[in-house]
Automatic annotation (TrEMBL):
Residues 1-69 form the CBS domain. It comes from the Bacteria. This is CBS domain-containing protein. Keywords: CBS domain. Gene3D superfamilies: CBS-domain. Transmembrane segments: none annotated. InterPro entries: CBS_dom, CBS_dom_sf. PROSITE patterns: CBS.
Length: 84
């Protein structure tokens, strides 16, 4: 893969307000963000990410559950199913 196609993920701390998390993800143009450890500065063995945040989950917390608008009859799969 060409290096110019790989973008860095936005990084947030666990106590970052959701609207700031959304803004960080928008700036990074990413659907995925890295949650950094709060205690990493005090303990170098704890350095690194503590988790991931997904854009769909951020939006669900801010505006409510995000549902697919495509009727079941068109997709052939029951709502909530991935079709896999």
């Amino acid at each position: 893969m060409r290096p110019e196609r790989i973008r860095r993920l936005g990084s947030v701390s666990p106590d970052t307000p959701l609207d700031d998390v959304l803004a960080t993800m928008q700036r990074a143009r990413a659907h995925l963000g890295v949650v950094d450890r709060d205690d990493a500065a005090d303990d170098t063995s704890a350095a690194g990410p503590s988790g991931l945040v997904v854009l769909e989950d951020v939006l669900a917390r801010l505006v409510g559950e995000v549902r697919d608008a495509t009727p079941e009859a068109e997709t052939g799969a029951p709502q909530g199913s991935t079709g896999a």
